Amino acid sequence: MQRSPSNPGRWTTFAVVLFTLLSVISIGVIPSATLAQTSPLQLTPTPTPTPAPGSALTDPTGELAAEVQRLTAIVESLQAEIENLKAEVQKLKSQIPNSRSSASNPTLKILAELGGQPCPDSDFTCVTLTVPADHFDPANRQTLDVVFGVLPATGERKGMFVIATGGPGAAGLASADAYTSAFDPSIPEHFDLVFFDQRGAGQSGGLQCPAAAAAYYETEIETKTPQGEAVAAAAAQEFSEACLAELDSTDLLPYLGTRQAVEDLELFRQAMGDDKFWLYGESYGTQFAQTYAAAHPEQLAGLILDGTVDLTLTGFEYYEEWARAFNDVLVMTLEACNTDEECADDMGQDALKVYDGLAAQLAKSPRPFTFPLPSGGAAEREFSLADLEVAVSNYLYSEASRLLLQRALAAAASQDDLVPLARLLYDSLSLDPETLEAIPDPTYSDAVYYGVECLDYAVPGDSSAERAETYLRAGDPTDTAVPRLSSIFYGDLPCAFWPTTPAAGPRPAPLTAENIPTLVLGATADPATPLENGQRVFSRLANGYLITTEGGAHVTFGWGNACPDDLVTAFLVEGKMPEQRETTCDGVVAEAYVPLPPVDASAFADPLEALLSADTEINHLPEYYYWDTVTPTSVGCPRGGTLAFSAGDTGDKFKLTNCAFSAGFAMTGVGLYSYDLGSFTLDVAVTGPAGVTGNLLYERNENGAIKVTGDYAGELVDLSEE
Fold first, then answer.
1. Cβ of 662: how many Cβ atoms within 10 Å?
2. Given its phi and psi angles, is residue 612 left (phi above 0), alpha (psi -120 to 50 degrees) or beta?
């Protein structure tokens, strides 16, 4: 992944200098004051000799010749410096894409008028709007701040493209730059890109309760017995109370619903002065986008729904489809393993039987295991059924995460190793693997999640106890019919105890989106927004197009599949509709399986094979695979030692200390993943089987060719493989 550090202050200074230089270069004169500020060549003015009264110049010809020679040298130096400055100007201008178009974009002037400032660690400009807390009660004078981020179009501007990210509770601004890098370049060229932190989330409130959330999600939820239901209800109530206690303030809670939030976007549209814009929503963002489309249909030039929620469903109807979809996608993931020879070999038996057998064991009692600590050493821990279901459900969202899940289940099955599953669990819950304490994630808020859900999907009932009983009874059919992960049905049970739960009302009317061309994207392996939701929404649209990916992830646009990506890009940039109302795109359930490393290094044929295995394992550690690319991180290696990684100017830097992925092959040294070259290197001292030692340099280039040089067991090593 290439990183481009942003320094807006540098460009502001450069703009002033550039204007001055261009002005003076164009007329061939550089004032000495300007040179003193911009040129490394410092000149001290020499006054013209003035004879004293009554004196005479003794050798005017010689002195004049010397002065001419001196001035000629100065002129030549100035000419050379001017050429250097011209070259530097051209170089710097080349680093500003479409500078003339950017300067003529009216968005820049509007952002300045709105007090726009550089977003933290981002290429976007942030604008803070003060909006009514309650858009529907003029008597309520309370206000709150909502932050929008804008990246002005670099070329001929077509309009605004607003992205409503998922959750609810996700901070859209945190993903703005990463999402933008995945778009076809024509999109940021022709559109002002807009992301935002929805009220309450991220920079728009920062509501957080990570400790309460981590504790709640690890609670065993068993709702098939009265005793289990009582435990589930008590845990939901305890979470609600603990979450509220963690918040600095609860003043915003009554105003977090989607109906309020879309009015914030409408005020932003008005502030930007666009009559119409294009709106993309993913996952919960489709809930947001449809709500906006229903409230302000005349303001939309186009609508894209990706991972679509059918808003006509009640909460209970949606949760039932939700639980079924998670079970179905888990089965797809396990069956994909069965049809892959290497995955089947690692699993050792039918993958579905592996999962069901492990779940049955854990339902009886948690299993002890030893976890390697990031600081070195190890800790004795337990792994429960709740842990398994949290890890599995969180790693069913994409093709890549399903691969990591397959490998973790295979390690548990064939190597009796629960550590890979524990790594998935700690990542899912944002727990510190060293201490198991919750790590606050500024990009997501469970408090906002429930703040929105409990308002948008009110649980029927006049009291907390009545609402909880209603919820539990609604889940009885799911407990019976869904064999795996049925506890997902109860994910919103805290809403029975949430303080701002309103009376349940009718669901929104079906969206027809008259005069709004609409793309609906979905995937057959989407666990969180089942495909049937999108199909129903599409069937009601006046001008809709359905794009379905076989297999695929929870959200499909911008993740590298050319089929949905190209259709969305053409829709936005060219105004081109898909050729047919329904399009099917090829996809996969899980990425190609990567075999597990051997437990013991004696299985390696040579050092090349051992280091290739280490390369594979480093790049498939969940801690690194889903690293935020910012926070220096350390992990315990599976068979001892530690691995640390951090971001450098040229690439991801690694430090290995007696790190072993297979017993008997420990590495100490450094590594680098180069952003520019796409290469990976390890420069390590190794201790192999039987205490054999060596010093090895492992290199993998951008094409996947690998090479190892150095010495091992007292012999020179020079091995390669294309």
1. 22
2. alpha
Residue 454 and residue 323: Cα distance in Å, rounded? 19
CA dihedral 618, 619, 621, 623 (to 10 degrees): 110
Q: What is the per-residue burial (b if ≥16 Cβ within 10 Å, else e) of 307-343?
A: bbbbbbbbbbebbbbbbbbbbbbbebbbebbeebeeb
Q: What is the DSSP letter of 494?
A: G
CA–CA distance, 95 with 100 (Å, rounded to integer)? 13
Q: What are phi and psi of 215, to 5 degrees?
A: -65, -40
Cα(345)–Cα(547) distance, integer angstroms: 35
**CA–CA distance, 631 with 76 (Å, rounded to integer):** 51
CA distances from 360 to 56, 63, 379, 478, 594 (A): 113, 103, 25, 19, 27
DSSP state of 277: E
As a whole number, mean pLDDT of residues 678-685 equals: 98
* H/E element, 422: helix 419-429
Percent of the residues in the chain that have a pLDDT greater than 70, as a whole number: 86
Residue 164 in tokens? 């409503």
pTM of the complete model: 0.84
Lookup result for tokens 């090895």: 696
**AA letter at 506:** P
- 92 burial class (0-12, 13-18, 19+ CB within 10 angstroms)? middle
Q: What is the pLDDT of residues 174-213, one digit of tens each?
A: 999 999 999 999 999 999 999 999 999 999 999 999 999 9
Tens digit of each residue's pLDDT (9 = 90 or more) over 474-486: 999 999 999 999 9
Distance CA 697, CA 711 (A): 9
pLDDT at 175: 94
Phi and psi (nearest 5°) for 146? -125, 135
Tell me the pLDDT tens digit for each residue of 65-78.
666 667 666 766 66
**Mean pLDDT, all residues of the chain:** 88
pLDDT at 370 over 50: yes
pLDDT tens profile 296-346:
999 999 999 999 999 999 999 999 999 999 999 999 999 999 999 999 999
HEC string for 35-97: HHHHCCCCCCCCCCCCCCCCCCCCCHHHHHHHHHHHHHHHHHHHHHHHHHHHHHHHHHHHCCC
What is the pLDDT, as a whole number, of residue 63? 60
Gap between the Cα atoms of 499 and 451, Å rounded: 9
**Which among 130, 297, 135, 111 is positioned nearest to 193, based on CA atoms?**
111
Q: Residue 578 — pLDDT band, cuts 50, 70, 90?
A: very high
Element (H, E) at 102: helix 99-104
Q: Are 584 and 673 in contact (CB under 8 A)?
A: no
Residue 710 φ then ψ, to 5°: 135, -145
Distance CA 463, CA 207 (A): 26
Q: Which residues are within 8 A (CB) of 534 and not within 5 positions of it... i.e. 6 or more apart?
A: 305, 307, 308, 310, 520, 521, 522, 546, 548
What pLDDT does residue 66 have?
Answer: 62
Burial class (CB in 10 A: 0-12, 13-18, 19+), 226: exposed
Residue 53 has a pLDDT of: 35
Phi, psi of 77 (to 5 degrees): -65, -40
Largest CA distance in the chain: 120
For the cut 90, the answer to whether the pLDDT of residue 120 exceeds it is yes
For residues 556 and 49, give the distance between their C-alpha atoms in angstroms, rounded to a whole number: 78
Is 498 a residue whose pLDDT tops 50?
A: yes
388: left (phi over 0), alpha (psi -120 to 50) or beta: alpha
Are 548 and 522 a contacting pair, CB within 8 Å? yes
